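Two quick folds needed for the group meeting slides. Do the first one here.
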Amino acid sequence: MVQPQMSLHTAPPDGGWGWMVVAGCFLVTVCTRAVTRCISIFFVEFQTYFAQDYARTAWIHSIADCATMVCAPLGSFVSNHLSCQVGIMFGGLLAAAGLILSSFATSLEYLYLTLGALTGLGFALCYTPAIAMVGKYFQKRKALAYGIAMSGSGIGTFILAPVVQLLIEEYSWRGALLLLGGFALNLCVCGALMRPITLKEELIDSPRLLKQDYVPEAQKPGLKHSSTCSPLIEDCTHKSLCYCSRQEYSFFLMPDFIVLAVSFLFLAYGCSPPFVYLVPYALNAGVSHQEAAFLMSILGVIGIVGNITFGWLTDRRFLKKYRIMCYLLAVGLDGICCLILPFLRSFPMLIPFSVTFGYFDGAYVALIPVVTAEVVGTACLSSALGVVFFLHAVPYLVSPPIAGWLVDTTGSYTAAFLLSGFSMIFCSALLCFSKLVKKMKKPRQTLSETNNDSKQQIWTNGEGAYSVTGVRDQKDV
């Protein structure tokens, strides 16, 4: 099979075709995350048609969202061993097939399989590789590029939600799902935009690329040689496959990544309940339905502003070195907003919450891939993002039911929002404590290395070499 031609770069180009990759990733987030959010619009139609309660119907959205995150490592694997273009195009076909088959549904169980599992699997094959590809094309403007790309989720939801409602009214829920399936085929176009690029860092870390035609012969001797891993190049032995897997997931041995991964579990738990229970809480506080819906619109629109502006800000020279600290600040402030929320009992008081929480939510979402890339490097970014999104799956699945149980048990939303806020603050505090410990250890290591170097210094005089340590020992004797 003919391999796609890849261009070799010593560093990310930070522009050029990279902006087309950003546009492709933006459309991928529209076709995946925005469409997933719009599935909830069909709930009333499903309840009426299949005569089922909300609890059973809501599992469709949970399965789709969970499948997208659980299968994220599979998306990284397909992208690494085939290509990003193949993975996204194949995922687009699966997602479109799931939506189209859902239009012929005869039961909720059928929708669990098609609209939930199959569509979620297709989205997983598209989402992670597209986000990883942006990281390969950008370094100096990485946060801004991710801010634009990730804003597709909010913008897509803002536009698609009324469009989907209109389609349901005009063509029924079956016709709307059929048209959404056709819309999801645009993922194949997005895949075509993901032009392969190879960085020098990847060539050193991935020896399997050395036998490709795009590697200049002059550069091959200076790089490590090993057996190839790609199944499209030659048959993989068990030994080479194990070696490749070890190389691709070597970041699991990094203490910084372990701490980051644990923090994501608390972040994913804390960020979900405010979106799910803000409207019920507002209605319980006496806010009208129109005003409660307006609060959610503010969250979505301000989140888009946070995606782009915070990404631009953290790309400035004076903040670029402190991207992780900016990420911690955004997560911590979102947690504080959740702690304050139970004390806001009117519409004018809830508007500042929606603005603040929405902005910092968009801010840290745009920085998640950036922070991950700074920890694991560009070569392992695709695999690392697959693991990161996988870690989001279980908290996304269990946090709304746990919050609902707290509301039922206590009779108020206070405990649910407090747990959410403390979870996000703990995420920020954990990473901050980790950085402080690392900073404290660094001077000690530097001092120890300096002492060792002075003791082991070698003086060369003519043909003889004398050790300072040896001379001192002789004098002592």
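Then this one, please, same format:
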Amino acid sequence: MLGRVSLYRPESDAVDANAIADWLRGRLTADVTVRDPFPLDPSAVVDRQVADPDRPRTGPRTSDDVEGRLYDGRAVQRACNAALDAAGSDRSLSHCRVALLDLPLATWGNDRWHRRVSVLGRPAVVSVPGLWSAPAKPTEYYWHQRRYARATGEVPPEDVLAERVEAAFLRREDPRTTEALKGYVLQAVHYLATGEAFCDDERCRLHNAHRHEGVVRAQLDDPEFCEDHARRYG
């Protein structure tokens, strides 16, 4: 049984970790604490960058393109564990740690890298930029993106696409980011408490949506939970 949840705020101010913690406290019996950003040395994740999008190979990249960087989520998780061990931190099974990170994460599978919002486990790592980049955008988003690029030769800004795409999607620095990430943090806690990874019900915050429309439905629309999980968290 979980007795403690430590939520590590990200370095950026894109997410209100205190608001997420308050929301968790209304749904959990565990003690929820917000901590400073996870003590992860930047040099510890340099070698965890995806070096080739078509191969399961990681290593430092020389590119200065921060937007294009991607990190192996499992390797970052192992680096987090090493940091906890080095600090002599409590590793009790009743203590759940969730690190909100400003790193875009991916895991390798089916011969390609898959962007992720979160990597469950101990500790769980939740990617803030992953919320915007990992789920697939609405089909019309890509249609307008290609059309704009053909006409101008440039990549269209997201605010331009947002004006033209009717379907809902979360944009970079979206004001709904904190609200949406509440469910992903609870998914991490729920997994350690029950062993259940995700919920199949698309209306539940414990559902792992693969498209932005699904993220909006699961994390921002009512109801918050399916009937089964409402009995536990509602």
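Slide caption for protein two: The first strand starts at residue 4 and ends at 8.
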